[in-house]
Structures are given as C-alpha cells and as structure tokens.
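In the design runs reported in the main text, the only information available to the sequence generator was the tokenized backbone. The following block is the verbatim input for one such run; it is reproduced so that readers can re-run the procedure and compare outputs position by position.
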C-alpha cells in the first residue's frame, strides 16, 4: 500500500515538473533561454540542441545572446531560430547573435493564456489518471486479500489528498504564468 501511494506521488510530482518545463517554453515577453529549448541546429550533419553548440545568456529582460563555440555554425543557428517560427529574429555581428524578444500584442497574450490554460487542463487530467491507476491498483490488492477494507479507504483518502494538493499546485503555477504573460 505504501509503495502504491509513494509511486503515485512520484508520478504526480513528475507531472508538475513536466508542466513547468512546458510553460517555460511559452514566451511571456521576457527573455529566457528556455525559449530556444527544442530548437535543433544542423551541426556537422547531426541535429543538435542549440544549447549544446554554444553559450546562451540573457542580456536583459528583452534580449538573449548566443555565442557559438565554433564560429562556422553561426549562420546555421541563425537559420534554425528563424525556421523555428517562434517570432524571433536574431541579429548577427559576425561572432555572436543577439536575439531581441519583441513585446507581445494584447491578442497574442490572450492566445498564450488560452494555451497555458489548455496545458493546465491536460496536466490536471494526467494527475487524475494517476489517481485512478493508484486506486485501481489498491482495489486489486484488496480483492487479493492483501488489504483490508479500512486500509483501502485510508489509502484512497491519502491518494485523494495527494491529488487535491497537486491540482492546487497546478492552479498556482498557471496563475503565476498567466500573470507573467499579461504583464506589460
């Protein structure tokens, strides 16, 4: 019983981490290197994540900087950022790229908030599915006489508390991200 609850908690925690990672990729008008996560560059015939080809840094709230370890890759990185179609236009000075983060329009902000809410719902469903799996597992244990009726009820209550706690955390993460997106 304890192992099932522990496993459910671990899986729910991983869902929260995955949500944070997904939301970090959503542009909020502020510069963050996570905006470029997922962009791959053709590096000597191999598609390589951009952060493995040079240094990415935040210069200020509206500018990222990229310094390649190999200067010959600069134009490929520039091209990869443009082709990623995330609304960023890098500016090259021959050795580095400066990537200005344009301010978001009101309409774009609202679209991003809708996207954030959709992510939130998807992750809430994932947490509820974890709860369902854990409860099913507990019921199987009870049918096999490995668990008493009282122990089953106790375990289900603990899993429900975990679920409620994680749903509340998801709501807080979403509220914070929405506020960040709507900030001008």
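Verbatim output:
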């Amino acid at each position: 019983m304890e192992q099932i609850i522990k496993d459910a908690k671990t899986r729910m925690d991983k869902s929260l981490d995955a949500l944070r990672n997904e939301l970090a990729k959503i542009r909020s008008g502020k510069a963050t290197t996570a905006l470029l996560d997922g962009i791959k560059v053709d590096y000597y015939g191999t598609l390589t994540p951009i952060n493995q080809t040079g240094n990415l840094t935040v210069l200020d709230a509206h500018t990222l900087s990229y310094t390649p370890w190999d200067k010959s890759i600069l134009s490929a990185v520039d091209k990869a950022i443009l082709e990623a179609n995330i609304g960023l236009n890098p500016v090259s000075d021959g050795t580095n790229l400066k990537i200005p983060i344009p301010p978001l329009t009101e309409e774009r902000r609202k679209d991003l908030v809708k996207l954030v809410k959709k992510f939130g719902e998807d992750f809430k469903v994932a947490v509820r599915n974890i709860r369902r799996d854990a409860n099913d597992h507990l019921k199987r244990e009870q049918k096999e006489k490995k668990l008493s009726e009282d122990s089953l009820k106790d375990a289900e209550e603990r899993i429900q508390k975990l679920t409620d706690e994680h749903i509340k955390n998801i709501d807080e993460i979403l509220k914070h991200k929405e506020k960040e997106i709507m900030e001008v």
